[in-house]
Amino acid sequence: MSPAERRALLARGLVAAGLALVLVSPVLWGMALRAQDGGVPGLLDVQSWSLLRASLFTVEGMPVGLFTFQPLRWGSAFLFPGESGLVASAQTSPLTAIGLLALLVALAKPGLRGVLLALAVPSLLVSVGPVLLIGEHGLPNPLYNALVMALPPLRRLWFPERALFLLALAQALAVGALWARLEAPKLRAGVALAVVLVWGLELRAGGLAPLPSWDARPPAAYQCLAQGPPGAVIDLPERWSAAHLYYQTVHGRPIFGGMLEGNARFTPAELTQLREENGLWSALEAATRPGPPGRGAREAKVRPEDKAQLGALGYRYVVLRREAVPDRAAQGLLRRLESLLGPPVYEDARALIYAPWGGERPCAELRPDKRRLGRTDVAPEERAGPKRPVQLVFD
User: Fold this and answer.
1) Region of residue 258 (left: phi > 0; alpha: psi -120 to 50; beta: else)
2) 57 with 76: CB under 8 angstroms?
3) What is the spatial distance between Cα 44 and Cα 57, in angstroms, rounded to a whole number?
4) 130/362 Cα distance (integer angstroms)
5) Torsion angle (degrees, nearest 10) of CA 208, 156, 173, 15
């Protein structure tokens, strides 16, 4: 590629970038102003940040985590604030991105190498987040820190690994450029097969192949709740997934806690007090908490006034999603819930409905779910790889 061709290519890119900036500027400007005046919740508090230091707390004081790309730790890591600084929990997967990109850049036409590197290197540095992990040591990342301090919208993006989409674009361009240079059909087929296998293995190791999915059909129990007398619903187990928010569109009833963030700073004080003081809720939460039932779940005392308090607030039904309960714990949990709530008024393979404040099943006859769907997604903490937290030592 001659110098004139390079200048022409750069000019076309600048024109396209300028046009894109003009088109999004009305929205981007408004977002930037709102973020700057503190009107957007959940922004990172950068008042104590510097080029060499970052703390993962929002302006409301809520601790948050960053899922970051860590090339020197052979995968990725989840950074979160600890008592004496950032703590890293490894989420490893086979790393092929840098090696594959380096190979393709080396084999690409000389005129394209600079373009590919200009795309890939900044995206890699940003996706590392505030800390580059080297063994059990953390090296600050001034580029990421400077961007977050300078651009308010970035203070809401807690996951630097999103920047890897730029790397994916660079990889795609490099693969296309290399493939176009190959003339032998067999060699082309071999390169295509190698790329597919390498990326496929990496996606598989990261729990992304096959693509995580879930069945959008609401359980029949939630369709049942669309009928019957008014009243709010307590979904169990709490915070198992966000599916109950989707199912709420079917029945339209208020749900306990709404869309909880799992942090007291974002939860009304009245709800926090109710959680701490109401014995029935404490017993339900302890009984359905993930993991083996603790001593508190077996010995929790429920007073009649606890049940009456929830009823006076408008709660009418309690729903248990069977798919969230391991088979080995199901029988014991069902016995415990029946002792707290009475027998279920509706039951099928996916969910049970209890009416501890009186009343029959909320719906007439409908076709129940005859089988459990189970979980088809893979939570990050369940993926393969060591999860041992590492206390970082900053050099």
Assistant:
1) left
2) no
3) 6
4) 52
5) 150
**66 neighbors 78 (Cβ within 8 angstroms):** yes
Residue whose pair of structure tokens reads 């290519």 in the numeric block: 9
In terms of Cβ atoms closer than 10 Å to its own Cβ (0-12, 13-18, 19+), residue 86 is: buried
**Closest Cα partner for 353 from 321, 315, 312, 394?**
321
pLDDT in tens, the chain (395 residues): 678 877 887 788 789 888 988 988 888 787 777 766 666 778 889 998 999 988 888 888 888 888 888 877 666 777 878 766 677 766 555 445 566 666 666 666 666 677 777 777 888 888 888 988 887 778 899 999 999 998 887 888 777 877 777 777 777 777 777 777 777 888 888 888 887 887 788 777 767 777 777 778 888 999 999 998 999 999 988 877 788 888 899 999 999 877 655 666 667 788 888 888 999 999 998 888 766 554 444 556 788 899 999 999 999 999 998 888 877 778 888 999 999 999 999 988 889 999 999 888 888 777 777 766 654 333 433 333 334 444 444 43
Residues 6+ apart with CB under 8 A from 186: none
CA angle 327, 328, 330 (to 5 degrees): 60
Q: How far apart are CA 82 and CA 339, in angstroms?
A: 40
Helices (H), 265-343: 269-277, 279-287, 295-299, 304-312, 327-341
Q: How far apart are the first and last CA of the chain?
A: 43
Q: Nearest to residue 76, comparing CAs of 380, 394, 391, 382?
A: 380
Whether cis (ω within 30° of 0) applies to the bond prior to 368 is no
Count of CB atoms within 10 A of residue 331's CB?
10
Q: Show me where the domains of the chain are located.
A: 38-212+386-394, 220-373
C-alpha span between 249 and 239 (Å, rounded):
17
